[in-house]
Please model this.
Amino acid sequence: MIKYNRTVSNQKQVDALSAQDYWNISHAVTRLFTEAPDERPPTDAMLRLLTTRLEWDVGGFWIVNELRMVLECAAFYSPTPNSFKNFETVSRARHFTFGEGLPGSAWKTRSVVCFPNVSKEENFPRLSVATLEHLHTGVAFPLYVGKKVLGVVEVFSLERRALAHATEDFLFALGGQMGVFLERLSAGKSLEAANAQFLLVAEAASLAVFTIDEQSTILFANSFVERVFGYSPGELIGKKLTLVMPEYLRHVHERGLAHYVATGQRHVSWDGIPLPGLHKNGEEIPLVISFGEFLRGGKRVFTGFAKLRAVEPG
Model:
């Protein structure tokens, strides 16, 4: 158990932990992630560990939903069960946007955020319930990798509390440590879910959809490509995208893609470009093409959308 050196000034408790305390918590966090029985982040165990060892009364674990761009409550814990059921119910039902509330503030600022007295905070949507259950001080810190925030941990106290600078620095560093583990554990499942959703949407689309890597190798093609280009998806996957381009445009595409990968600069717009394609039978076909850039498993890929362009007679 951590032994706090707490000084009291005007009924405010200042938490000062020893270097050994910081190390013990960091080590326990590492063990929880590395010994997780499956690929799911150990959110419940992690929240229980932090809330208990840091001696706070309530804790919440929030995950960034990247599709909806909101924070969702993934876990809630209190060392005294059933003492904060109303606050738990409201927290689990709420979604916080970028900068909204205590968790949203930690997400936006990518820093440790303290609300010394939640009743005096304008940006605290759960105020009525927190007041009802006598919560006083709230602290949140982001779980991040680089500049990307993956989640937020928040804790609350029934007492007025303030963080020592060393504890604040520790929580920020711990958020970086947890962010790395969280990304590694969730990457597989997140990628699997994202891919499943992408495939579902792509197969339902009434236009040809390609995904290529930085070398222009086709990684995915939906079934509609056969109606546009005459090739089945199986005939295209693993081949170069230049296969469905007229020969005189192939070097232009390859040079432009290589230039973008190297510099990040585009020579042409990626949205609604009228360009000719090449059908399997050797005929040129008029197209409208758009491109988007995405990350899959930490690697950059490009998805293109092609549809036949109506050509006016004359």
Notes: Confidence is low (pLDDT under 50) at residues 1-12. The CA atoms of residues 85 and 133 lie 9 Å apart.
